[in-house]
From TrEMBL:
Enzyme class of the recorded protein, top EC level: transferase
Cofactors required: pyridoxal 5'-phosphate
MF term (GO), any: alanine-glyoxylate transaminase activity
Organism, as annotated: Trichlorobacter ammonificans
Protein name: Alanine--glyoxylate transaminase
Domain Aminotransferase class V span(s) in chain numbering: 88-314
Length: 353
């Protein structure tokens, strides 16, 4: 049975996207591709409020997350860690042979500007990574306040994962001074998996140019020189880029503010639902994700059983991630999901509870 997805990615895809993706194939060195590439990167710049370079990589998010540390860490990297994906990013940084420290807070807590300030004030780091919206814990860290701190450290490259938050709230990449903003498209952007997007400031490109052993597939210099011709270093996932072209048009026709409001509304809807049923939210007040709600299993529910029953009724439900699986569950309300669809799902959860 096909299940409607309420897991935090991949998520439900609008039928128009699949139609757009089934357009006839073109060659990636043909002018038709250059037109598509130019249109999509222009749309992404509008979405991200930036004039920085925007690149398209054929991989999931971790391809570029690895690429970013290979290209941008020259000395030592501070990997801010507050959940499964940020912990893994530290591991990946080390596996790339880079000097790096995990600056960790307990899962469920945000990365705070104070922690960033304290860490960078040591003068040990030339780069930092953080995840804006930790999908494993439903914690959204205060990006604007952290960006204010980052302005005091112009020699530190600021690398941010926005995989599960992009387009759900304003993330003005240029105004925030993010040097490299990275996301895959299968979560907040509601596309099938396989495409990752990243931005790069001049500072980031300058750093990359001075770093050795960048490899080939994610070499930012290769992306930059190919993008000058509206192209990519290797054959891109053209069908998905057609899908992204369609999705950008859909986002702009909904209106960015309407999209942001819809996400806020669905987050509030979900938080009230779980609270009224006696559960506690995993993230502290003020740091709760707008795209998924991570809930403490404070009623000791058999989450595996609940997941199975919901699956039988046609709904994919998430019973927690990594070391908090079973202790928490997550309800995703991202992408193109509408409040009425969420309400329908929550009513079914209610019956099964
Ligand atoms: C915040 C965040 N970053 C990175 C990833 C890893 O993405 P991928 O599996 O697309 O490489 C995920 C996946 O869930 C995520 O939620």
């Amino acid at each position: 049975m096909t299940q409607k997805l309420f897991i935090p990615g991949p998520i439900n895809i609008a039928p128009e996207i699949f139609t757009a993706m089934s357009q006839p194939m073109i060659g990636h060195r043909m002018k038709e591709y250059a037109e598509l590439h130019g249109r999509v990167t222009t749309g992404l710049k509008r979405l991200l409020s930036t004039e920085d370079r925007v690149f398209l990589a054929t991989s999931s998010a971790f391809g570029v997350m690895e690429g970013a540390v290979r290209n941008l860490v020259k000395g030592r990297c501070a990997n801010f860690c507050n959940g499964a994906f940020s912990d893994k990013w530290h591991d990946v940084t080390r596996r790339c042979g880079k000097d790096a420290d995990a600056i960790s807070v307990p899962w469920g807590q945000p990365i705070t500007p104070e922690l960033v300030e304290r860490t960078l004030a040591t003068g040990k780091y030339d780069s930092m990574t953080m995840i804006h919206n930790e999908t494993s814990t439903g914690v959204m860290s205060p990006l604007a306040e952290i960006a204010d701190i980052m302005r005091r450290y112009p020699d530190v490259v600021f690398i941010v994962d926005t995989v599960s938050s992009v387009s759900a709230l304003p993330i003005p990449v240029q105004a925030l001074g993010i040097d490299c903003c990275i996301f895959g498209v299968q979560k907040a952007l509601a596309l099938p998996p396989g495409l990752a997007v990243f931005t790069a400031t001049e500072k980031a490109l300058k750093r990359a140019a001075s770093v050795e052993n960048r490899g080939y597939y994610f070499d930012f210099m290769e992306f930059s020189s190919n993008d000058d011709k509206n192209n990519t270093p290797s054959t891109p996932c053209i069908s998905l880029i057609y899908g992204l072209d369609c999705q950008l048009q859909r986002i702009f026709s909904e209106g960015l503010e309407a999209r942001w409001d819809r996400h806020r509304l669905m987050a509030e809807q979900t938080r009230s639902f779980v609270r009224e049923r006696g559960f506690q939210l995993f993230a502290p007040e003020g740091y709760r994700s707008l795209t998924l709600t991570c809930v403490e299993n404070s009623r000791g529910i058999d989450l595996a059983g609940l997941k199975k029953r919901l699956g039988e009724r046609g709904y994919a439900f998430d019973d927690g991630y990594g070391k908090i699986k079973g202790q928490t569950f997550r309800i995703a309300h991202m992408g193109d999901l509408q409040p009425a669809e969420l309400e329908e799902f929550l009513a079914v959860v209610d019956e099964e509870l």
